[in-house]
Design brief:
By secondary structure, the chain is an alpha/beta fold. It has 3 domains: 17-85, Beta Barrel (OB fold (Dihydrolipoamide Acetyltransferase, E2P)); 90-239, P-loop containing nucleotide triphosphate hydrolases (Rossmann fold); 252-305, Ribonucleotide Reductase Protein R1, domain 1 (Orthogonal Bundle), CATH 1.10.40.50. The protein is built from 8 helices and 15 strands. It has helices spanning 6-16, 114-125, 143-156, 171-179, 194-201, 252-255, 260-265, 294-305, and strands at residues 20-27, 30-36, 42-49, 65-72, 77-83, 89-90, 95-96, 100-106, 130-136, 161-162, 183-187, 212-213, 218-219, 227-230, 236-239. A 6-stranded mixed β-sheet has the order 10-9-8-11-15-14, sandwiched between helices. Strands 1-2-3-5-4 form a 5-stranded mixed barrel. The longest helix has 14 residues, at 143-156. It is globular and about 65 Å long. The N and C termini lie far apart (68 Å). It binds guanosine-5'-triphosphate, magnesium ion and zinc ion. Zinc ion binds next to loops.
């Protein structure tokens, strides 16, 4: 076998010297950044940042790829000196360089709310990255109801994964999927079980989980910060704080592409008469209005136009 030349080792040393890390979490005014140390092991450093370091006006966030200086591996500290260009971004929760969004909803406790979950799906689709749908608390509903949900969500254009941390349903399937990605973001309402799933996926983690407010049938906003966790050497998943109502994108023209039901109808060169058709009541519109979420689509578009 041919031996590896000295040029290769020089190249490896140069890569290791570029002091590039990934932001894992933000707490108070500090950043936790992972960087490969001299033995190529991940080393987590507590970092401050040069004053006023921003990326197109937005602050450093979890998932950002950053350059470090003044690295002190002994005391695990460093200073962030630059932010690398972002390949993708979701603004709420703020995460950079994501490759996948996992919208997490529960069948019950809190009840599946199609309007709310559609808003989460739209925000996820708006990132331009792959969107996955996970429904939790499978143990709390009958098999027959879950099959009805499966058919319904397929009509929405998604192939959901159903999970239960009680019976560990769907957990290994989800883990297999997550191991193949680069950086996935879990987002969804409070109390649906985002942190519980990460604990089930990664038994060495022990993320605090919250109770449900029985009166409101909602979570109590247990997770307060975005944080990345390793699902394999190269796959990261972000746990995020739950919230109730994601904002809609502001441009109605872009909005039409955020529904898989519309995208599926526009294949095979099928086109509406007008290029900027909003698929409301325009003449020559080829989009069928006979699908469950069309009423949400119509309502959201009118909401945007009237803003
Ligand atoms: N029965 C059942 N309960 C679950 C399941 N997954 C989570 N829970 C419960 O749901 C509650 C909320 O779980 P969390 O993991 O804290 O929810 P979260 O989505 O992280 O909530 P926030 O951090 O507030 O956004 C806890 O009481 C969990 O025990 C499940 O699969 N089945
Ligand atoms: Mg949580
Ligand atoms: Zn149309």
């Amino acid at each position: 076998m041919k031996s590896i030349g000295s040029g290769f080792w020089l190249f490896v040393v140069l890569i290791n010297n570029n002091n590039k890390g990934i932001v894992i979490a933000l707490k108070a005014n500090y950043f936790f950044v992972d960087i490969k140390d001299k033995s190529f092991q991940n080393s987590r450093l507590l970092c401050t940042c040069r004053a006023r370091l921003k990326y197109f006006g937005s602050s450093i966030c979890v998932g950002d790829s950053v350059d470090l200086e003044q690295i002190d591996f002994k005391n695990h500290t460093a200073v962030i000196s630059a932010i690398h260009p972002r390949k993708s971004f979701i603004s709420r929760p703020s995460v950079a360089n994501l490759s996948d969004v996992f919208v997490i909803a529960s069948f019950v406790e809190p009840n599946f709310d199609p309007d709310q979950i559609t808003r989460f799906l739209i925000a996820a689709e708006n990132t331009g990255q792959k969107v996955n749908l996970v429904l939790t608390k499978h143990d709390l509903i009958s098999h027959q109801r879950s099959q009805e949900y499966l058919l319904r969500l397929k009509e929405w254009g998604y192939s959901p994964i159903f999970t239960s941390i009680k019976y560990e349903n769907g957990i290994s399937l989800l883990l297999e999927q997550i191991k193949k990605i680069k950086l996935g973001v879990f987002c969804g309402p409070s109390g649906v079980g985002k942190s519980s799933i990460i604990n089930a996926l990664l038994p060495h983690e022990c993320i605090p989980i919250g109770d449900l407010s029985k009166k409101l049938n909602r979570g109590k906003h247990k997770t307060r910060h975005v944080e990345l966790f390793y699902c394999s050497e190269n796959a990261l998943i972000a746990d995020t704080p739950g919230f109730n109502k994601p904002d809609l994108p502001s441009d109605p023209k872009q909005f039409t592409f955020l529904f898989p039901e519309i995208r599926a109808q526009l294949v095979d060169q099928k086109q509406c008469k007008f290029r900027n058709c909003l698929h409301l009541n325009e003449p020559g519109c080829v989009i069928s209005k006979n699908w469950e979420r069309y009423s949400f689509y119509q309502k959201f578009i009118l909401e945007m136009i009237n803003l």
